[in-house]
């Protein structure tokens, strides 16, 4: 399941505070930042890493409908006290439309729709990342990756293995930095030296994980360390 990393916008500060409080009661919802000024949000937009936006429609300076057009690729949940905006909101491919005052169960349902939308989008739209490799700057389709291991000669480098059995050496990059660039919820670190693509996992126990490199070759097994076990199981089963 994709974790929601959201930005909240509502020009009414009491309503924004209430929305923040509701979000704290929901699991797997991380509020990156909250704004009661949409123009300030626009100034900060390039500095923010988020996938979902709860967006009030009636705001001074720029309304939510106009602002949403600048948030391509983000799951948009509109909110307003006025039902007449609903049709226009859905014309902008909003994942949901909330009426104020906010209600916890209704907000949770909206975030569920956002997770479904983001999952579908990740499957339909391959995510490419650019990494420094032994071949130079390489543009890599993350959906082609099977697993990644620490390089034998230099632990700062990471060896990326692909579905077709080919490999590439990513230079001087940490697993944390790599996972930050990869699609959320699709890769998992299972021990200090290994990251696997969840789509490549074909067998697992509490002790090891088996990944298929190529349909014509035997699967490869990796140790599943205790400190990463709970997170791996959660990602795989959600």
Short key terms for the protein model shown above:
OB fold (Dihydrolipoamide Acetyltransferase, E2P); five-stranded parallel beta sheet; five-stranded antiparallel beta sheet; 15 strands; 238 residues; WalR-like; 29% helix; Response regulator; Rossmann fold; alpha/beta; elongated
Strand proportion, as a percent range, falls in 25-35%
- How large, in whole angstroms, is the Cα Rg? 21 Å
- Report the CATH architecture of the largest domain: 3-Layer(aba) Sandwich
Uncertain residue ranges: none
Quote the CATH topology of the largest domain: Rossmann fold
CATH class of the largest domain equals Alpha Beta
At the fourth CATH level, what is the homologous superfamily of the largest domain?
Response regulator
Order of helices and strands: EHEHEHEHEHEEEEEHEEEEEH
In total, the number of domains comes to 2
Topology:
Elements: E1 4-9, H1 13-24, E2 29-35, H2 38-44, E3 52-56, H3 64-68, E4 75-80, H4 86-91, E5 96-99, H5 104-124, E6 128-133, E7 136-141, E8 145-150, E9 158-162, E10 167-170, H6 175-181, E11 187-191, E12 194-197, E13 201-204, E14 208-211, E15 220-223, H7 226-237
Parallel strand pairs: 1-2, 1-3, 3-4, 4-5
Antiparallel strand pairs: 6-7, 8-9, 8-12, 9-10, 11-12, 13-14, 14-15
Short description:
Residues 5-115 form the Response regulatory domain. By secondary structure, the chain is α/β, with parallel strands linked by helices. The chain has helices spanning 13-24, 38-44, 64-68, 86-91, 104-124, 175-181, 226-237, and strands at 4-9, 29-35, 52-56, 75-80, 96-99, 128-133, 136-141, 145-150, 158-162, 167-170, 187-191, 194-197, 201-204, 208-211, 220-223.
């Amino acid at each position: 399941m994709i974790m929601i990393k959201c930005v909240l916008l509502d020009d009414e500060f009491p309503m924004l505070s209430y929305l923040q409080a509701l979000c704290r009661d929901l699991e797997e919802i991380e509020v990156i930042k909250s704004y009661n000024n949409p123009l300030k949000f626009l100034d900060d937009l390039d500095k923010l890493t988020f996938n979902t936006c709860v967006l009030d429609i009636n705001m001074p300076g720029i309304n939510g409908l106009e602002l949403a057009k600048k948030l391509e690729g983000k799951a948009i949940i509109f909110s307003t006290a006025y039902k007449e905006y609903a049709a226009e909101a859905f014309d902008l491919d909003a994942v949901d439309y909330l009426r104020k005052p906010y209600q916890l169960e209704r907000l949770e349902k909206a975030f569920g729709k956002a997770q479904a939308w983001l999952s579908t989008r990740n499957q339909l739209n391959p995510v490419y990342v650019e990494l420094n490799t032994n071949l130079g700057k390489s543009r890599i389709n993350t959906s082609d990756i099977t697993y990644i291991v620490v390089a034998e000669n230099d632990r700062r480098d990471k060896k990326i293995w692909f579905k077709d059995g080919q490999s590439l050496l990513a230079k001087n990059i940490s697993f944390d930095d790599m996972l930050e660039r990869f699609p959320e919820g699709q890769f998992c670190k299972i021990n200090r030296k290994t990251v696997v693509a969840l789509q490549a996992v074909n067998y697992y126990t509490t002790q090891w994980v088996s990944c298929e490199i190529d349909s014509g070759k035997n699967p490869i097994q990796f140790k599943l360390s205790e400190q990463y076990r709970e997170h791996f199981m959660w990602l795989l089963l959600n």
